[in-house]
Design brief:
Low-confidence stretches: none
Enzyme class: transferase
Pfam family, one: Methyltransf_3
Largest sheet: 7 strands, mixed
Family: Belongs to the class I-like SAM-binding methyltransferase superfamily. Cation-dependent O-methyltransferase family.
Number of strands: 7
Radius of gyration: 20 Å
Organism: Xenopus tropicalis (Western clawed frog)
Mean pLDDT: 89
GO molecular function: catechol O-methyltransferase activity
Amino acid sequence: MLQVLLAVGMGALALLLFVVWRVRTDGAWALWWHDNYLERLRDFTSGQSRPMRILQFVQSAAAPGDANSAICAVDSYCANVEWAMNVGDKKGQILDAVVLAVRPRWVLELGTYCGYSTMRIARLLPPGARLVTLEMNQHYAQVAKQILGHAGLDTQVDLLVGASSALIPQLKKKFEMETFDLIFIDHWKASYLPDARLLEECGLLAPGTVLLADNVTCPGAPDYLQYVRNSPRYRSEYFPCQLEYLQVEDGMEKSVFLG
């Protein structure tokens, strides 16, 4: 009987070690583990959503009106307590560098989630610049508004709720603007290419407009990459990095619209 129990215990330990190894090294396993298993378990045990848990941590740990403090609070929570699908601190440095290099007057963000990348962009914008961010999920948008308010950035950001495919054609008229200087793409990966083409069709891109796409390796956006890398309308550059807060391979694609 003891030998049976030992064998079962060793088998369970081996399975656990295998799962841990796969989660740490494989993007699909990592996303399944954090987004499907752990998140649902925490939702059930806490009675709250992950975005609400992030919001509460920011409100308790970050100084009001301090965007950098709010960003650090999200990073701390997601690195040490609970993973979340922000762009993260490492890829965030790439995003920061692009924003500083472009110095955009008009920025469009596709996919707000809890407002982490929104904060990173907004805090670096020159005076008078505007950031428009689109989020399909009403709950995420509500949380993002509160986090942006706590960070003191809510007056610089216009957050629209709805499908990007429906909102993009309305942007010119709604904001009385012509084209965007920078577009950060970080929503549904299957929407990367359709929305990029829609931006072209709606005349929202000008020569020199920069498109920066996250997660092009994990979980990946192969059709988008094939398009921007092979189209004569873009000049693209790949930035290898790691999935936010993990040791899993990922990357960002910077594509300059040529006209």
